[in-house]
């Protein structure tokens, strides 16, 4: 299969409507791709906290409309990164959108782990509650977002849900770029799954982004890695390698569940 990760540059200077049109054009240019991935919160910026509320949109809003049309034009699966979702009955959410090749929105994933501790996403957005996978035919996709990479229990749950290919859009800052690379490879090795991690480039909300989008195979080998600037990273691989790696090195059958709490001495 062929996957394209669109490492979009996000800046405060570019109006969201213009960036939306530019992103749609980049998706449409990926003719022949089976899967295209965009970064986290690219319409407004993952660190543009002050703009989130005004930029929030419903699941059938302008970003979803543009992305659905782009996916249908290419005939590919499109993980359109995430948007600030406006829930009329609740808070705003950091919500990923997955489109099928016919343009149908088939899955959404509200980010479970919110970054910021006592500020930003952690206080401005609601937390997702659902583990989300999707059978794309060529592989079962497991959905996670950015800060989720730091929580291996989520990825183990995605593994238990059948995931073979883990898709992780992000707005990961440059100052923690080494963590990004290390954690993406660790999740691939732990779950014996492909990891497709698509980050933003540029600077928004005063925070320089790392770029360095990465594709890792189930053995932890880096198949492709982007630089720090806007780039389309395209790679071809065989999704069946996930099952093959699990058969050749069946580490998951040795998992111990329900390990008792440590004894106090």
From TrEMBL:
Span of domain CN hydrolase: 1-239
Pfam families in UniProt: CN_hydrolase
Keyword line: Hydrolase
Domain of life according to the entry: Bacteria
Record GO terms (molecular function): hydrolase activity
Entry keyword annotation includes Mitochondrion: no
Signal peptide annotation: none
PROSITE patterns given in the database record: CN_HYDROLASE, UPF0012
Family per similarity comment: Belongs to the carbon-nitrogen hydrolase superfamily. NIT1/NIT2 family.
Protein name: Putative hydrolase
UniProt organism field: Kitasatospora setae (strain ATCC 33774 / DSM 43861 / JCM 3304 / KCC A-0304 / NBRC 14216 / KM-6054)
